[in-house]
Amino acid sequence: MNSLITIQGVKKTVFGTGSIDQIGLECKALGASRALLVIDQSLSKTDTCLRIQELLKKSRVKTFLYPDITPEPDPMLADMGAKLARKEKVRCVIGVGGGSSMDVAKAIAVLAKNGGKAFDYIGVGLVKNAGLPTIMVPTTAGTGSETTLTSVFTMRATKTKGGINSPLLYPHIAIIDPELTINLPSYITAYTGMDALTHAIESYTSIQAHSMSEVISLKAIDLISDNLRGAVFNGKEIRFRENMMMGSYLAGLGLAMSGVGAVHALAYPLGALFDIPHGIANALLLPYVLEYNYPGDIDKFYRIAMIMGKEGDGLSDRDIASLAADAAFDLAGDIGIPLTLNEIGIPEKAIPEMAKSAMKLERVMANNPRPMTTDVAEEIYRLAFEG
Fold it and tell me: pLDDT tier at 63 (50, 70, 90 boundaries)?
């Protein structure tokens, strides 16, 4: 366990069904009467967007819509959003949607006050000054971006991914309303939920984990594994949505405190090279990485397997720990996640390049509970290709 514990995070969280009704009041509490609303293209055409705009208008907050966010966003989206924020003299940036919208919103907020381009800040600790206040409103139970200090971008020209990482990106307010996920399609519920489970498991087993992050991450594993099937198959049932949103939020807190590991590192090349959504990449790779990782911390993987419903009668702790991967396979299969790289169109010949690319994410790989090498990364990809 890491003996040095530092706790930072989102400054205020408002959680619960109907909590979106507070958005105007929270914006005004930040001293903002002009706000930039950052939202993806499809969500901008929904009642959710209209409702948020009306709530802000009711609180006399003038809203400027930035509806250009696409999956796996390019840094230029943040650059253009910051230009709009400065032009309209906004005093708050609101990110609504999944991880892409919230990540871009956080980047816009710091660019509006620091200048330069988003690409200039990709790395660790490169943001020097606080940005505009931010409010994050997740509409999926998955990314946890409403809790983290990171904005992730895809540089398609170089086929790489990278993040702006700074405590100055922690949101000022997170408004988490499970009601906003009621109409989320089942396939998005499935892969975003598995993304959240990946955050929870990797933060729990990270070598940077500590007593506080472990409690939070373990509870997230419990909530997500117990409720994801229900949210996928009976998504109108609010209790499943509430538990998934809490699980995703806690997983994000755990991620912010202790980081993630090899699943994320191996997932990044799938997005950078083939535009596979981050949640799908994590969901597909999670079971294969767990198969490799469990000997690195038998006790923790034992707990994961038991929490996820695997029986342990007559088995050794090591054998039970190995069942964590089976539990992840079962959950992914039940909810319709693709189980092989071949299914999502990844060519086998790309595996060596992906392995080398993944190993460049040294800071992420360093958190993994079992050491990773290029050869091991390649072998995991091959197993994931074949199934």
Answer: very high
